[in-house]
Specification:
By secondary structure, the protein is of the alpha+beta class. It has 17 helices and 34 strands. Strands 4-5-6-8-7 form a 5-stranded mixed beta barrel. Helix 5 packs across helix 8 (297-305), helix 12 packs across helix 16 and helix 13 packs antiparallel against helix 15 (520-530).
Length: 715
């Protein structure tokens, strides 16, 4: 009997039991498993327990989770202690710090509900068992006291130091940065244990900051020898035979517009105005699928990485430099292989016709967004005569079309959260010299709008061809989360109605009403957090945020594996270039979509931590200095302040407010003194001093120098 059949047999039988529980030996006997030895039966039963479909009670008794109000899930810790257990299905359960039973972030645990709450709200529990320790790497500082060794984890969500198992020190020296792996403690001992798996060196060593992030998120710093050798065997030149099988559009005026600090260039565009009205557009994307074959060493490496990770001072690419920076990069004045989406639009931006083709292009010029914007503005920041005449003409036409497409996006209800990004400016030595807001220009929107058209066209074509591929799906938000946001918005004086929020047009009008208000940024951020995350899935759920019925990622195959999947399926189902598809089962694409969504979350987290680390390094030079700012967020241990001068956010810890005992109000929008009634509310103006900057943890702490309480008294 195979494993899956045995699992199903065990679960089906226990579900028939009136009490929903049974002792292990009795279950084995009742199932009549004469062909399966007892050791194999126990192994499968343990696997079912780890999955959370069964729980182990006292006396080797197994039961359905609901029989003991027990859930199994992954524990995530919060900065102020405690955390949540997130089951595979259903709502998360809050765990107070004293009920964590030694669990650390990432552990699979069992928790007993001690307060059920209602509709998933206020569910609380206590961890009763650590089913499996997390396998993720933990970075920290190795320390010794006498013969006892321990690791101080870098992440603050680890509330305790971790003892190092005797003999598992790997030669680490006191004060060095190490990578460790959590171990399961003895049943009677809940203090977390670990073993050292790698010694990185002194904290201040050159490049240590980036190395810590790479290790923390398990980012691969080197490509396999097989993938490197495979990339080096790809020829430089484009043979006449290769070009003959493609549409030759090297005479078409194409160009690229990218960030000033872009590391790869995978999209070029072309545009012209039609004599009879409307526009002809072309979006030309590096044909990575031509070079990275399904099942090759390069393919295995790219799939495992999922996407490129853009840290502040470097990129950890999905593909080796031979491909990402050379053969596939759409460099100006060089022939390159592309997949192109051609579309004809009318004067209102409606797509009249579209076609996808394998092409070869010769880009006229590489522009960055600032250069393109300076040309459009006529500011003189960039000499227009450096841009060829045909490119200048195309930029003007593209600007006109963008106005039309933005209007159409607004009319259909696409959401546009005004959340500026942080840009860290480095000096020649890689040290941060300024922290600024990344300004969003019209030139950004020009490229975004064309990419949206290309992504939509490819998704529609593959969907109509019944091809299995990965949609970029964004489901409608949960009503419960919108209701929580509505309560918070109303406490700040804004009327938000969750019952109307299924309509993107309502969300859009609410966001517009915030423009220029002091709570605009924080409410944009909190509303965005109330939305579901976009995922990669073979199932089309539409894209709520873009207000599109169908959408996929096609335009960045150098840095995103889902785009490469779309390119391959275009070859197989639309262009007729690929072999008959080998993988038609939807489960394969579900598993792949889950993996790639997970990799996206990981790389996003690594990129954010890299920015936080450099911000903290920058603020180390400003310790004790005073800045003006505004309260931007409230958490149980304090409130965040965003500075005016630099795009930096730091925490004012409640312990630094010595005039009173401060608590968060019931709506989570203010920190209020219990005795004197003074409060710090989201949006309030304050003056703060930089009290602490921890580069390793990416944290900045402030102290209030001057601020106004509710009664007008200074704190």
């Amino acid at each position: 009997m195979n494993e899956e059949t045995l699992k199903a047999l065990i679960l089906d039988y226990i579900r028939t039991l009136e009490k929903g529980k049974i002792r292990r030996r009795e279950l084995y006997g009742r199932l009549g498993l004469k062909g399966t030895d007892y050791a194999e039966f126990k192994r499968v039963l343990n696997l079912i327990e780890k999955s959370g479909e069964l729980v182990r009670l006292k006396g080797r008794t197994f039961a359905l989770p609901e029989m003991g109000n027990i859930i199994t899930g992954v524990f995530s810790a919060s900065r102020h202690g405690g955390g949540f257990v997130r089951p595979t299905a259903g709502d998360s359960v809050y765990i107070r710090r004293e009920h964590t039973a030694g669990a650390i972030p990432g552990d699979t645990v069992q928790a007993r509900l001690i307060h059920k709450g209602h509709v998933g709200i206020n569910r609380a529990g206590e961890i009763i068992k650590i089913v499996e320790r997390t396998g993720r790497p933990i970075i920290g500082i190795y320390k010794t006291i006498g013969k006892t060794a321990y690791v101080i984890p870098q992440e603050k969500v680890f509330m305790e130091n971790m003892l190092v198992t005797s003999g598992e020190e790997l030669g680490a020296k006191d004060g060095e940065v190490v990578v460790c792996r959590a171990e399961v403690s003895a049943p009677t001992y809940t203090h977390p244990m670990c073993s050292v798996v790698e010694v990185l060196g002194p904290p201040g060593a050159p490049g240590m900051d980036v190395l810590i992030i790479a290790k923390k998120f398990d980012l691969p710093m080197r490509f396999s020898e097989e993938s490197i050798e495979e990339s080096l065997r790809i020829p430089d030149d484009l043979s006449a035979d290769v070009i003959a099988r493609r549409r030759d559009i090297r005479d078409l005026v194409t160009f690229t517009i990218d960030p000033i600090d872009a590391r790869d260039f995978d999209d070029a565009v072309s545009i012209s105005r039609r004599e009879d009205g409307g526009f002809d557009i072309g979006v030309h994307i590096a044909d990575v699928a031509h070079y990275v074959r399904d099942g090759s060493a390069l393919d295995h490496e790219a799939q495992a990485r999922g996407m490129s990770c853009y840290l502040v001072d470097r990129v950890i690419p999905m593909l080796p430099e031979r491909l990402s920076g050379e053969l596939c990069s759409l460099r100006p004045r060089e022939d390159r292989l592309t997949k192109s989406v051609f579309a004809t639009l009318d004067d209102d931006g409606n797509i009249l016709s579209a076609e996808i083709a394998d092409t070869v292009i010769h880009s006229r010029m590489r522009l960055n967004y600032q250069q393109a914007q300076a040309f459009l503005d006529g500011t003189g920041d960039y000499e227009a005569d450096l841009i060829p005449g045909e490119v200048r003409e195309a930029l003007i036409v593209l600007s006109d079309l963008t106005d039309i497409l933005i209007r159409r996006r607004t009319e259909r209800g696409a959401l546009d959260f005004e959340l500026p990004e942080t840009r860290v400016i480095l000096d020649a030595a890689g040290k941060p010299k300024d922290i600024v807001k990344r300004t969003r220009l019209k030139s950004h929107r020009m490229i975004e709008e064309l990419m949206l058209i290309a992504n939509t066209v490819t998704a529609m074509e593959l969907g109509e061809a019944k091809a299995p591929f990965l949609y970029r799906s964004h489901d409608t938000p949960d009503r419960e989360k919108l209701e929580v946001f509505g309560d918070l918005a109303r406490s700040l004086g804004y009327d938000f109605r969750p019952t109307l929020a299924e309509s993107q047009l309502y969300i859009q009008s609410f966001l517009k009403s915030l423009q220029g208000k002091r709570h605009e940024r924080v409410l944009n951020m909190l509303l965005l957090r109330s939305m579901k995350k976009a995922v990669y899935s073979p199932h089309n759920l539409g894209h709520y945020g873009l207000a599109l019925p169908v959408y996929a990622h096609f335009t960045s195959p150098i840095r995103r594996y889902p785009d490469l999947i779309v390119h391959r399926q275009l070859d197989r189902y639309i262009l007729g270039n690929g072999a008959a598809p080998e993988r038609l089962d939807i489960q394969y694409y579900e598993t792949l979509g889950n993996h790639l969504t997970s990799r996206e979350i990981t790389t996003d987290s690594a990129e954010r931590d890299s920015v936080k680390m450099k911000i903290a390094e920058f603020m180390e030079r400003h310790l004790g200095e005073e800045f003006n700012g505004a309260v931007s967020g409230i958490i149980p241990i304090g409130f965040f302040v965003e500075l005016d001068e630099y795009f930096v956010e730091g925490l004012v810890h409640v312990s630094s407010l010595e005039d009173d005992y401060y608590e968060v109000d019931e709506h989570g929008v203010a920190m209020i003194g219990r005795n004197k009634g003074r409060r710090f509310m989201i949006g309030d103006r304050v003056k703060v001093a930089v009290a602490r900057a921890d580069k390793e943890r990416g944290e900045v702490d402030f102290m209030v120098v001057e601020g106004m309480g509710k009664r007008g008294k200074r704190v």
